[in-house]
Amino acid sequence: MMSFLSQTLARVKPSPTIAMTGRARELAAEGRDIISLSAGEPDFDTPLHVREAAKAAIDAGHTRYTAVDGIPELKAAICDKFRRENGLDYAPSQVTVGTGGKQILYNALMATLNPGDEVIIPAPYWVSYPDMVLLAGGTPVIVEGEMQNGYRITPEQLEGAITPRTKWVIMNSPSNPTGAGYSEEHLRGLTDVLMRHPQVWVLADDIYEHLVFDDFRFATPAQVEPGLKDRTLTMNGVSKAYAMTGWRIGYGAGPETLIRAMAKLQSQSTSNPCSISQYAALAALTGPQDYIRTSREVFERRRDLVVAGLSECPGIVCPKPEGAFYVYPSIRDLIGKTSAGGTRIETDEDFASALLDETGVAVVFGAAFGLSPHFRISYATSDEILTDAVARIRRFCEGTR
């Protein structure tokens, strides 16, 4: 059977976040008391006006094929969004709509990478970045952002990673898994480097744009350095900002040549995104924006709850993130210890496995994101559940020896 399958599959591995979420569901189905903090999606309902727009689209008969990469009305709304919120001017021909932000990223890499092309990926990274690069025939080049630098890479690190084969650098701010945000000042240092290397394109993953806390101000690379706009794909979507993960709508804007190439690829894979979801996304982008402010306030409160609770756990150091709905604590001081259940903690994967087995709390181990020894918690769940989970983690840590 292995000889029947494509050799391309040997380059990649299944998503660890999906695997951990699946294991937690299996244990819950067996009757275990499980708290899953591994999935990255808001726990709120999609805003009512968005749901109503989807129903209206069905009643209006918008149930047929659409243009391959998005209906004109949605593309126009996306152009308005970029102009209004990011100071970026795009024509509809420079916009593509896909089945989630993941497809936008995948299409861009598949449409541009050749064997030997390199893609710089700051770590910790979203688990899918390296595997998508590998599927497209490229080579991931991992640059580690250290905890003492807020998990952000420095201009010097970026400069040192660029070679004549570098085609893309992927920037994700605020970040999954750390919640770290690149301020305008941080981005300026990186864009100054990129301006010296005209062969390097920028793939800006801005999916957590609206989930920023305290006084952090979001910025995106093409906004900070207009000279990069003609070699930047700015990706975003409605999944995180409007609690629409299952609707599967992402979008991107960039040079028309790239957008046409991505549409060509999409025409031979999924074709158009769900027509109903497109009209729902249109309502999200053009309708009331109250939900964003309300959800941001809730997530900020939850962040503070989780950071405070984990900071009291022996052996855990938990930085305070600027955005998203994740924390990425260090467990360096727990490595080499043994849990109350008898598990020797040699890696962060050992930690995550023992934590799930002994306490029922599911987290994702740091090696999945390219930087150990850490783990990721998604705090996109209720205060009560988070309080319980943090208490279990504290008891687990206190029980190590």
Automatic annotation (TrEMBL):
Query: For this protein, what is the EC number?
Result: 2.6.1.-
Keyword hit for Oxidoreductase: no
| SUPFAM superfamilies xrefs | PLP-dependent transferases (SSF53383)
- Pfam families, A to Z: Aminotran_1_2
Q: Which reaction does it catalyse?
A: L-aspartate + 2-oxoglutarate = oxaloacetate + L-glutamate
| UniProt cofactor(s) | pyridoxal 5'-phosphate
GO BP annotations of the record are: amino acid metabolic process
Q: Which residues form the Aminotransferase class I/classII large domain?
A: 33-393
Q: Which CDD domains match?
A: AAT_like (cd00609)
* The protein's name in its UniProt record: Aminotransferase
List the top taxonomic levels of the source: Bacteria, Pseudomonadati, Pseudomonadota, Alphaproteobacteria, Rhodobacterales
